[in-house]
């Protein structure tokens, strides 16, 4: 695994996750999926997504990110808790490794984080 | 706080942290400080630093990072646990916000992570 392929795939995954995130936001009331996937958009977009979920009555929201977006996920959590919803509790922070299959059939590992906030 | 100043200061801090990290590694046996600060060097440098600490008899090692290095800190933890020392336990993962004073006197916030691994 070279850093280059890792980066390329991290970028692809992020795009996929952003699309997923938009779908989730759109069909939120139907699916009740309270997961915000962090991609490469400005941090405040995701902060607003999390705050909106809690304002819509969610008791728990999960922030997920992979690769280079992990730093942004921590930013989102810190901004939500420190600036907008100071009463939130941190239920859990977990890290993991996910395996992706590259186009040439090789496999790359990418780190992931999952932060669960609750009212 | 604009994203630009944030980035500039994150970069400055990282350089400071790398120096600090090198000092810690050099004087480790004297100070018994088992903290590995993650900067912008290759991930495997930090992986080796953590593995070495455990091999030198440390029962607990703390991985710390700020700003954009947070993603690398998670990579380090995942590689150490999955590839080198599978018996390690994750004692805690905490995130926080730290405030830095810029050269012009304004203050910027930067996210930080602290991962504690134990035997």
CATH topology of chain A: Translation Initiation Factor IF3
Task: Classify the helix fraction of chain A into a percent range.
Answer: 40-55%
| Strand ordering within the main sheet of chain A | 1-2-4-3
Q: Helix and strand succession of chain A?
A: HHEHEHEE
Which pair of protein chains has the largest interface, and what are the residue counts? A-B, 22 and 21 residues
Q: What is the domain total for the residues of chain A?
A: 1
Oligomer: homodimer
Distance between the termini of chain A: 41 Å
What are the low-pLDDT stretches of chain A, counting only 5+ consecutive residues below 50?
A: 1-31
Q: What would the average pLDDT of chain A be, to the nearest integer?
A: 81
**Alpha carbon gyration radius of chain A:** 15 Å
Summarize the biggest pleated sheet of chain A: 4 strands, mixed
Count of helical segments of chain A?
4
Approximate strand percentage of chain A: 25-35%
What form of chain A results from the Cα inertia axes? elongated
Question: Which structural class do you get from the secondary structure elements of chain A?
Answer: alpha+beta
Structure notes:
Two copies of one chain form a homodimer. Chain A contains four helices and four strands; from the N terminus they run ααβαβαββ. The first copy, chain A, is an alpha+beta fold and 119 residues long. Chain A has a single domain (5-11, 32-118), classed as Alba-like domain (Translation Initiation Factor IF3). In chain A, strand 1 (35-37), helix 3 (43-55) and strand 2 (60-66) form a beta-alpha-beta unit. In chain A, helix 3 crosses helix 4 (70-84). Chains A and B meet through helix 4, strand 3 and strand 4 of A and helix 4, strand 3 and strand 4 of B.
